[in-house]
Write a structure and sequence with these properties.
Order of helices and strands: HHHHHHH
Radius of gyration: 19 Å
Number of strands: 0
Distance between the termini: 69 Å
Number of domains: 1
Number of helices: 7
Structural class: mainly alpha
Largest sheet: none
Helix content: over 70%
Length: 179
């Protein structure tokens, strides 16, 4: 009986839709890809304003507010960008509002994760925890790319970390000039 259920599940997962995508491919196109794009954008694009503020002001509350504003703004921007870029009809990527919502939420999560440590109050502790959170975010992104897009994990991690370091470095450089 269990073998028949497994075979039925395999048949269902291998069945293709009108665009030639299996259920797993549809899930990747409709959920994973927009979520990953959001997580990548939120985790990386908010690094520069957050760390520029941290290094320029050494003020954790100001840094938190700038990080929160960056995460909210990036989430809204990415939600609209994803929702308005593709109706989903031609590509089979599904409902644009749902994809936009997934992208926006994941962008916010990516941006707010390394912002929350600045609520700790201690500048040095907040920086240390934020660095750790950024590392976890970047490794999570590399893992999703490995798991769903058949990327080599170490190459993916290297690519994501280099991108993150470039944005982080620009924020530190700008912030160090301001304070």
């Amino acid at each position: 009986m269990a073998q028949a259920a497994d075979e039925n599940r395999d048949v269902e997962n291998s069945a293709v839709n009108e665009n030639g995508h299996t259920k797993e491919q549809q899930f990747v196109l409709k959920v994973i890809q927009p979520g990953l794009a959001g997580l990548m954008d939120g985790s990386v694009s908010t690094l520069a304003p957050l760390f520029a503020t941290a290094f320029a002001t050494h003020n954790t509350l100001t840094t938190f507010l700038v990080g929160l504003a960056s995460a909210v703004g990036a989430g809204i921007s990415m939600a609209f960008s994803e929702a308005l870029s593709d109706t989903g009809e031609l590509t089979g990527r599904g409902n644009p509002v749902k994809r936009g919502g997934i992208t926006g939420i994941m962008t916010f999560i990516g941006g707010v994760g390394h912002t929350l440590p600045f609520l700790l109050g201690s500048y040095h502790l907040a920086l240390t925890v934020a660095f750790i959170v950024v590392g976890v975010e970047l490794i999570a992104i590399a893992y999703v790319r490995y798991r769903y897009f058949s990327m080599n994990f170490f190459m993916s991690a290297l690519q994501v970390i280099v991108g993150g370091l470039l944005v982080f470095g620009s924020g530190v450089l700008i912030g160090s000039r301001g304070g």
